[in-house]
Specification:
The protein is built from ten helices and no strands. By secondary structure, the protein is mainly α. The chain folds into two domains: 46 residues, Homeodomain-like (Arc Repressor Mutant, subunit A, Orthogonal Bundle), CATH 1.10.10.60; 150 residues, Tetracycline Repressor, domain 2, CATH 1.10.357.10. Helix 4 runs antiparallel to helix 5 and helix 4 runs parallel beside helix 7. It is globular.
């Protein structure tokens, strides 16, 4: 006969039962912790993504916390677990964007040895970052450029680092030192052209990025070339793909029409001033 197991007295628990009961509790606690952390990370990312969309559409000043809640699909208590106000969210987006941009630029510089190719890779990285960041990239820049902005210091630091990297590579192809103001102007042109991609009123295509890259590199070559160097051909509208060419021509007509309206409005204002005088 086999040994008979001792039964636990009423109200008591055997050592085997106690072991069985303790194990599941420990397992549950180990599984629950990462789930909670994962949910927190997911909620914060949802807020940032929703805020980026809203800021990109409405701008910083017009955006309300309610707009961010709707875009992110989260409750107000959840929002305030991570951020105090919309300025906090904007600051987080600004920091993320600057860190990611610097990482992309540095990676581009380390990817090749030729100085001109390094500059081309940097331009491409900047454009790709602009497209990936979306319309909020332009809003972040505009807000940081205000005289009383809380975000201007970070932007100035990032731009100084990019300028330093850009200037260092450009100087390697020059026999004499180039005026640093030239690089300030080039970077401003790159930013402005990248901003223009978000004013198309439609998703940005590879053709749009290629067009921006051609224009920027023509500016770069023109700025850095010696008088005897051969320059790339000027970017022509007729060289663009057919659909893109039609879009560009339409935009040019719309701008021409707006300029005419502005001119007419100015003439009317001057006429009224003459009457008042």
């Amino acid at each position: 006969m086999g040994q008979r197991k001792n039964k636990a007295a009423p109200g008591e628990t055997s050592s085997a039962d106690q072991s069985d009961q303790k194990t599941p509790r420990k397992r549950r606690s180990r599984r629950q912790a990462p789930k909670k952390a994962g949910r927190s990370s997911y909620s914060r990312m949802n807020i940032l993504q929703g805020a980026a969309d809203v800021f990109g559409r409405l701008g910083f000043a017009a955006t309300r916390v309610e707009d961010i809640l709707d875009a992110a699909g989260i409750s107000r208590p959840t929002f305030y677990r991570f951020f105090r106000n919309k300025e906090d969210v904007f600051d987080a987006l600004d920091e993320i964007s600057h860190v990611s941009l610097l990482q992309l630029i540095r990676s581009a510089i380390l990817s090749v040895d030729d100085p001109i190719e390094k500059i081309e890779r940097c331009v491409d990285a900047f454009l790709r970052w602009h497209v990936a960041t979306g319309p909020v990239a332009r809003v972040l820049r505009q807000e940081a450029m205000r005289a009383d902005s809380d975000f201007s210091e970070r932007r100035m630091s990032t731009m100084a680092r990019i300028l330093d990297l850009f200037e260092r590579e450009a100087q390697r192809v020059q026999t004499e030192k180039v005026d640093p103001l030239l690089f300030v102007g080039l970077l401003a042109a790159v930013e402005r052209i990248a901003d223009e991609l978000h004013s198309l009123g439609r998703p940005i295509t590879e053709d749009d990025v290629a067009r921006a890259r051609r224009v920027i590199m023509r500016l770069v070559y023109g700025a850095l070339a010696e008088t005897s160097d051969a320059l790339p051909p000027l970017p022509k509208i007729n060289d663009l793909p057919k659909k893109q060419r039609r879009d560009v021509e339409r935009q040019m007509k719309e701008k021409s029409s707006r300029r005419q309206e502005d001119s007419d409005s100015l003439q009317r204002s001057l006429w009224l001033l003459d009457l008042d005088g």
